[in-house]
């Protein structure tokens, strides 16, 4: 099944299933059912079963999925068994934190470099990765075939950064700037809105304390 035909919410849940299964470690059962996964993650069993139906492996009645096969199928489907190169634009605290996060390697993501306009940062390194001037972005992305861009700049600079990324051949953008971006239809943009996430948590806590 093509990834483009799968609902966005399903794509967001699949990594959660994979993380849970890998987290079982040595205690993982040989076989696991969609109902067991659903119970562990507080999800509906029908929803989990529908989500896993997009994978090439199939569960068996009463026994469920072979756990190792399900893990491999999830990793392959999500592209974690391949390595995709990425760049970060904005080498501030958030950008440098992302560059230093070793966990991305487990998800097939390799951050090659960062770009910034601050002359005190350009020419330095973060976790062994170079911080380059903005005028090198298009050439580097085009030359090395980089297709993932991460934006960690202020809102007022985000659209111009997005435009540069598109010129360089970036096809997927992870946007941490608090602004909606405009890009061609074939460019996927995921907005990581931290304010919205915090609002959801705050509202949840407020409702809990009212009870």
Description:
Helix content is 43%, strand content 18%. It has 211 residues and is of the alpha/beta class. The chain folds into two domains: 3-78, Winged helix-like DNA-binding domain superfamily/Winged helix DNA-binding domain (Arc Repressor Mutant, subunit A); 84-195, NAD(P)-binding Rossmann-like Domain (Rossmann fold, 3-Layer(aba) Sandwich), CATH 3.40.50.720. The strands form two sheets. Strands 5-6-4-3-7-8-9 form a seven-stranded mixed β-sheet. The longest helix is centred in the last third of the chain and has 17 residues, at 194-210. It is globular.
Order of adjacent strands in the largest pleated sheet = 5-6-4-3-7-8-9
Could you spell the SSE succession in H and E letters? HEHHEHEHEEEHEHEEH
CATH architecture of the largest domain: 3-Layer(aba) Sandwich
Query: According to CATH, what is the topology of the largest domain?
Result: Rossmann fold
Q: What is the radius of gyration?
A: 20 Å
Taking the sheet with the most strands, its summary is: 7 strands, mixed
Q: Count the domains.
A: 2
Strand residues, percent: 15-25%
Sequence stretches where pLDDT stays below 50 over 5 or more residues: none
Individual helix count: 8
Structural class: alpha/beta
Q: How many extended strands?
A: 9
Distance between the termini: 44 Å
């Amino acid at each position: 099944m093509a990834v483009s035909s799968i609902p966005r919410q399903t794509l967001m849940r699949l990594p959660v299933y994979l993380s849970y299964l890998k987290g079982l470690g040595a205690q993982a059962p040989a076989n696991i059912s969609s109902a067991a996964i659903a119970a562990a993650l507080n999800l509906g069993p029908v929803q989990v079963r529908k989500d896993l139906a997009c994978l090439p492996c199939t569960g068996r009645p009463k026994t469920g999925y072979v756990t190792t096969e399900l893990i491999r199928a999830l990793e392959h489907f999500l592209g974690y068994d391949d390595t995709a190169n990425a760049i970060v634009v904005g080498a501030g605290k958030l950008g440098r934190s992302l560059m230093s996060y070793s966990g991305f390697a487990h998800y097939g993501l390799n951050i090659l470099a960062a770009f910034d306009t601050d002359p005190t940062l350009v020419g330095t390194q973060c976790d062994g990765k170079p911080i380059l001037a903005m005028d090198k972005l298009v050439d580097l992305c085009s030359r090395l075939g980089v297709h993932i861009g991460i934006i960690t700049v202020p809102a007022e600079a985000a659209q111009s950064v997005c435009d540069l990324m598109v010129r360089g051949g970036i096809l997927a953008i992870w946007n941490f700037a608090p602004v909606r971006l405009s890009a061609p239809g074939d460019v996927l943009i995921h907005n990581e809105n931290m304010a919205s996430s915090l609002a959801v948590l705050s509202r949840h806590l407020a409702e809990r304390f009212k009870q």
